[in-house]
Structures are given as structure tokens and as C-alpha cells.
UniProtKB/TrEMBL annotation:
This is Carbohydrate ABC transporter permease. The keyword Transmembrane applies. Belongs to the binding-protein-dependent transport system permease family. Keywords: Cell membrane, Membrane, Transmembrane, Transmembrane helix, Transport. The keyword Lipid biosynthesis does not apply. The chain crosses the membrane at residues 24-45, 89-110, 122-147, 153-170, 196-221, 254-275. It comes from the Bacteria. It comes from Microbacterium croceum. The lineage of its organism: Bacteria, Bacillati, Actinomycetota, Actinomycetes, Micrococcales. Pfam families: BPD_transp_1. Its main location: membrane.
Length: 290
């Protein structure tokens, strides 16, 4: 007797009868959104390659010139721009990597370990997200001065090594992706909490940790206020402080400033170009778990 085959689920069809069809206006909206997002960066390049006259000309000039390499050379001659880029890479990469690991550890503790006051401590961590960052500047500076770290790179690395958002982010991912039965089986096999985290928990949430590291890298790269307060020596400047030094006291060379800003943005664009798809995958992985 032949067994009846189960019916295939009905396939969704759009109004035009095609499966998964995307309407033209969706593409039109996405194209407009991309153009609006890219235009400021493109216009920076136009000003840097033409000069300040590109801003004051009527109608505004919207196509680049041929002076960008001259402006770039002037930027490197005015400030130690290459050293500033290197400093920003060192600081941003160090903070991103260590923050991802520390926040994953804290998130694992809050999500999977039982200890007195766990919920209260987590609530305190969340409440720190409501405190403006400007309120912590004076206490941080006093601590850095007491440690004699003013005008050093560790002064801008250490204060950013953990974040309330990062702890919350990793706790939510670990709560939904790390199976309690798997942890119990690992403990029966003799694994301690650190071994469970490193061999089971962290590999599971590695995409989320990567996303957190990338967000942190971008935030540290673009930070201006705290490095501007604690750094004094030009050879220790990050790229954002170097951009500030391109501005004269009373006048601003728009071509010079825009050229430096464009070159300071390029490393971030390169990073997102190579890891953007992995970042989206990490975000979506957390969205569909649980």
C-alpha cells in the first residue's frame, strides 16, 4: 500500500504572483537611503580635492577636482597624522578586544551563574546606562592623575574596558543560546565555570561578541572628548585630536580639515567593507535565537 506524501507547505506569493518578489519602490527607497548616507563623505572628498571654493561657489560644485593628494600631503606635514592613525588603531583595537571578552564573562555570570545579589547587581549595571558620560569625566581624571597616567595611551584604554551596554548585550545572548542541560552535562564531566565559559559559552556567542567589538571599535575611534582631556603630547594624539589640530585659532582651512576627516573615515569604511556581512549575521543570529 503506497503511503501518501505529505503536502508541501503553501508558498507565499506576492501580488504579482512571484515568490519573494520585492517591489521596485523598496529598491528605490534603499538607493535613496544609500545616496543620502554616502553624500557627506563624498562631499568631503570634493571639498578636499577642489578647495574651499567648492563650498562658496553658486551653484555648489558637486564633482571632485585634482588637488586631493596635495591636500593629503599638507595634512601629513601639518600634524603627525600617520602616528595618530596608528595610535587610534592601537587604542580602538585593544578596547574592542578586551571589552568583548570582559563583557562576555560578566554576561555569562549574570545569565548562567547563581550567586547572592545577582539581580540587584545587574539592575545597578543597567542603571549606570542612564548616567551621562560627562558626569564621569572629573572622577575619571582624578583617578588617572592619581595613577600618574595623564598623557599616556593607557589613560584612554583602561576607562573603556567594560560597558553596561556590552554586559547587557552579552547576557541576553547567553541567556537564549547557552543550554542549561549542556552546562549540567559539562559539570558532571568535571568542568568548572571558567572551562564551561571558554569551551562552550564563548564559542556559542562569538558572533555577538564580534558585533560588540566592532561597535566598541567604532565608538572609541570616534571619541574626542576624553582623549582631548588627557593627552598632551602630539605623538600620542588619536586621529580625532589630530583633526582638531588642523584648525587654526581664528581661521579654518576647509580643504585641509575635510581632507583629514576623509582620510580618518577611510579606515572605518575599510573595516566595515570586509566585516559588514559578518556583523549583520551576528545581529540577526541574536534576533532569531530563543
Amino acid at each position: 500500500m503506497s503511503q501518501a506524501k505529505p503536502e508541501a507547505p503553501a508558498r507565499r506569493r506576492g501580488h504579482g504572483g512571484r515568490v519573494g518578489r520585492v517591489r521596485w519602490y523598496v529598491y528605490a527607497f534603499l538607493i535613496v537611503a544609500v545616496l543620502i548616507s554616502v553624500f557627506p563623505l563624498y562631499y568631503m572628498f570634493v571639498i578636499a580635492s577642489v578647495g574651499a571654493s567648492a563650498v562658496t561657489s553658486i551653484p555648489p560644485r558637486l564633482y571632485p577636482g585634482f588637488n586631493f593628494f596635495d591636500i593629503a600631503t599638507k595634512v601629513f606635514e601639518t600634524v603627525p597624522f600617520l602616528q595618530s592613525l596608528l595610535n587610534s588603531v592601537i587604542v580602538s583595537l585593544a578596547v574592542a578586544v578586551i571589552t568583548s571578552l570582559l563583557c562576555a564573562l560578566a554576561g555569562f555570570a549574570f545569565a548562567k551563574l547563581q550567586f547572592p545579589g545577582r539581580n540587584t547587581l545587574f539592575l545597578i549595571v543597567l542603571l549606570t546606562m542612564t548616567v551621562p558620560a560627562q558626569l564621569s569625566v572629573i572622577p575619571q581624571y582624578l583617578i588617572i592623575s592619581w595613577l600618574d597616567w595623564v598623557d599616556t595611551l593607557q589613560a584612554i584604554i583602561l576607562p573603556g574596558l567594560a560597558s553596561a551596554f556590552g554586559i547587557f548585550w552579552m547576557r541576553q545572548h547567553l541567556s537564549t543560546t547557552l543550554n542549561d542541560e549542556l552546562m549540567a552535562a559539562a559539570r558532571i564531566d568535571g568542568a568548572n565555570s571558567w572551562q564551561i565559559f571558554w569551551r562552550i559559552g564563548f564559542p556559542v556567542v562569538r558572533p555577538a561578541a564580534f558585533v560588540l567589538g566592532l561597535i566598541t571599535f567604532t565608538g572609541v575611534w570616534n571619541d574626542f572628548m576624553w582623549p582631548f582631556i588627557v593627552l598632551k603630547s602630539p605623538e600620542l594624539f588619536t586621529v580625532q585630536i589630530a583633526l582638531k589640530q588642523l584648525q587654526a585659532n581664528r581661521t579654518i582651512d576647509l580643504a585641509l580639515t575635510m581632507g583629514g576627516s576623509f582620510m580618518a573615515t577611510l579606515p572605518l569604511l575599510i573595516v566595515f567593507f570586509f566585516v559588514g556581512r559578518r556583523m549583520v549575521a551576528g545581529i540577526m543570529d541574536g534576533a532569531f535565537k530563543g
